[in-house]
Write a structure and sequence with these properties.
Length: 216
Amino acid sequence: MERLPSRRRLLAAGLSLAALAAARPAVAALAPTPRQTAGPFYPAAIPLDSDADLVTVVGRAERAAGNVAHIFGRVLDPDGRPVEGARVEIWQCDAFGRYHHPADRRGPADPNFQGFGRATVGAEGGYRFRTIRPVPYPGRTPHIHFAIFAPGGPPFVTQMYLAGHPLNDGDGVLARVTDAGARARLMVELRPAPDLELGALGGNFDIVLDRAALGG
């Protein structure tokens, strides 16, 4: 006949399971988006037109050169909660690889491209920008700079890259992210998005802030 476990053994097993359950987090924390350098071309002065549409500039009739791209996503904390009220800023070079910055001496930037934009995160954590598909310039693969300012926290700076772009492997800034999983969290696939705008691309870039960015 099979022996039944003693009450003492059952109690010990129960205590062990309870200890394991207590040590295990109830919900696995989300891996944060890797931080990246802001680079030298954050605007020296914030442009008067700094809304979320970088393709059109107030007072100019022509649209920016380049392929229009809608970049959208959510800003979350490590527990997956939306960071409502966070400010998201982006900046990037124009379709010719030039920034609106006095330190970029490669020639004048496209006057019809805003180059910098801001958006505020809503209750669901969402943000959206209308910009152009990023292009390479000497020494860098295509990218868009992001800075997120959570309420009460310091800036969180990162960069967004194009998934599968052939110049990614030779980019010195991206090469600092050696973990494959972390590197994947910086990649976005831009796809045709005719439901958003005829001829435009669209891509989702969710950003998970680390605890330090939340002031904790």
